[in-house]
Amino acid sequence: MTMPDQESCDLVVVGSGAAGLAAAVTAAVLGLEVALVEKEPVLGGTSAWSGGWLWIPRNPLALAAGIDEDPARPRDYLRHELGNRYDARLIGMFLEQGPRMVSFFMAHSALSFIAGNTIPDFHGDNPAAALGGRSVCAAPFDGRKLGARVKDLRPPLQEISPFGMGIAAGDDIRHFLNATTSFASFRHVAMRLIRHGRDVAVHGRGMRLVNGNALVAALLKTADDLKVRILTATPVRALVREGDAVVGVKAERDGRTIEIRASRGVVLAAGGFPHDVARKAELFAHAPSGREHWSAAPEGNSGDGLRLGESAGGTVGTNLVAPGAWAPVSLAPRPDGTTGHFPHLIERAKPGLIAVRRDGRRFTNEADSYHDMMTALFAATPKGEAPEAWLICDHRFQRRYGLGHARPRPLPLGRWLASGYLKRGATIEDLAQACGIDPHGLGETLAAYNHHAADGRDPLFHRGESAYNRMQGEPGHPLNPSVAPIVKAPFYAVKIVAGSLGTFAGLVTDEHARVLGPDDKPIAGLYAVGNDMASIMGGNYPSGGITLGPAMTFGFIAAHHASGTPLPQDPDRPASTPEPTHAL
Ligand SMILES: Cc1cc2nc3c(=O)[nH]c(=O)nc-3n(C[C@H](O)[C@H](O)[C@H](O)COP(=O)(O)OP(=O)(O)OC[C@H]3O[C@@H](n4cnc5c(N)ncnc54)[C@H](O)[C@@H]3O)c2cc1C
């Protein structure tokens, strides 16, 4: 396709992750002519690497299963979690429109969802926490429905996708972990591998798309059906302004500058600043040069959206508990010589693992959320030291669940041991020496941990006591799903460093996702959604799915605003009860 130097449409969306696609598809359904401009040669951003979970309390799938929460409950949960970062306008809009966003995509797109009715909130000690019913996940999607477009879809993150094959949460992952001990699981895995192999041979990639890959693929399918103009490898470099209003973008395509005019405005959805060294140096206390941080997000997310917003008078909100969605990552060497950032999301909660600093001491409940674990590591790290720790387990654990990128039985460990990624010791002292951990400290820590673990207890950090820990652990494991002694030699360790799944600091907006100028007035024609929008959670991480849920909800809201279409109302269900005046 040859692009003229000037184009025009109704709405330009910058970035093709979940936030951008939600805005583009909604706007197209509402009748706008939309251009979706993506910097990378592939579409989907971090969203295509994600678990595909959205935190949406009172969603239609929960309702259909008979979980009909009082609207005050999720709001109270957030008031308690967010404290003085709670913004009633933003949270009110999110809680009201989130369920309608889900219904909208179920009705108007190829996206369908599976229910998270047994997924608990992260913080069970919050009196308004739920044991389930507040999240949905993208349902698996058949990549063949995308036709030729599938070649533009970002493949799943290789570190967490064996042979390039996405593994879904729930039964799928359980089958993979049980493949050598259960015939049913072996058969499931064998069928998955056979189909994947056939897909790779025929299509060059797996076609049974799950998680974030399915989310992006389904939205892309609808975007194509609705004739959204999708431009890949076209980084947006500047906003076009008339007076104070934003009326389009300038982008680079095939070495030329093109201008795309947009009568209804521009939606910034460029995925925050995980790889913007200067912004990280400014906002990440643990990364003074901006380089001491290893995000699991794609390299293309380099803060362009935030800079574009600032160029039009927007401000990046920094009044946040944390500027990033922290996650422990390990640095896994790839065959091509580059280094993958493996996010430790799953195995930390399984029974028989602890994390220690170089003094050999534990510092937190390792089964808590990735964000909470990393926050605890920051707090435990003395000033001037790097926030690093080691995940420690025994042979039984490593072969059963894997440790980081070193996969479980029957996959071999040689490559990981040879590269030094995986450390091994015949004794705990040997392991400590190999890692540079104080052997005395580690010996004492393990003796104390194992003493209580034999009874399924962790009096120090209470592993396995919350519903979230238990779900992430091993259901049915005797005594405690998240606690087991670490005793069977040899012993293994992987080093974890400071990482993230995305960023929380973003452009300050109103509840319609309009970017606010210095006078707190909306900048005409400029919206920010996803991680380009300041986290409505104020930099807190109350539950899984709190980035994609708001990302898609505010993409949906921004498109309604830009098109001049009123947001949907649900006459059968009161949207919310009046905001209480007391704090929890
Ligand atoms: C392994 C992993 C699992 C995760 N699981 C979950 C989960 O289950 N639930 C959840 O809520 N969150 C999850 N997250 C976090 C979540 O994926 C991100 O917060 C979310 O995808 C951000 O969405 P976005 O649309 O804002 O940005 P992205 O999906 O990152 O999309 C931004 C896009 O903008 C493009 N772009 C950048 N600059 C420009 C430019 N100048 N011009 C044009 N395009 C540009 C980028 O190339 C990119 O494609 C996970 C993250 C990881 C890494």
Give me some keywords for this one:
single chain, 16 helices, disordered C terminus, binds flavin-adenine dinucleotide
Describe this structure in words.
There is one protein chain. The chain is α+β, with helices and mostly antiparallel strands and 584 residues long. It is built from 16 helices and 20 strands. It has helices at residues 18-29, 60-64, 72-82, 88-108, 171-177, 183-203, 211-225, 277-283, 304-311, 370-380, 395-401, 414-419, 428-435, 439-453, 467-472, 548-563, and strands at residues 6-14, 34-37, 53-55, 113-115, 135-138, 141-142, 208-209, 229-231, 236-242, 245-253, 256-268, 294-295, 324-333, 339-343, 353-356, 389-394, 422-425, 491-503, 514-516, 522-528. Strands 1, 2, 8, 9, 10, 11, 19 and 20 form an eight-stranded mixed sheet that branches. Helix 4 packs across helix 16 (548-563) and helix 5 crosses helix 6 (183-203). The longest helix has 21 residues, at 88-108. The protein is globular, with a radius of gyration of 24 Å. The site of flavin-adenine dinucleotide (FAD) has 41 residues, from helix 1, strand 18 and helix 16.
List the helices and strands and how they pair.
Blueprint: E1 6-14, H1 18-29, E2 34-37, E3 53-55, H2 60-64, H3 72-82, H4 88-108, E4 113-115, E5 135-138, E6 141-142, H5 171-177, H6 183-203, E7 208-209, H7 211-225, E8 229-231, E9 236-242, E10 245-253, E11 256-268, H8 277-283, E12 294-295, H9 304-311, E13 324-333, E14 339-343, E15 353-356, H10 370-380, E16 389-394, H11 395-401, H12 414-419, E17 422-425, H13 428-435, H14 439-453, H15 467-472, E18 491-503, E19 514-516, E20 522-528, H16 548-563
Parallel strand pairs: 1-2, 1-11, 2-8, 11-20, 12-18
Antiparallel strand pairs: 3-5, 4-5, 6-7, 9-10, 10-11, 13-14, 13-18, 15-16, 16-18, 17-18, 19-20
Helix pairs in contact: 1-7, 1-16, 4-16, 5-6, 13-14
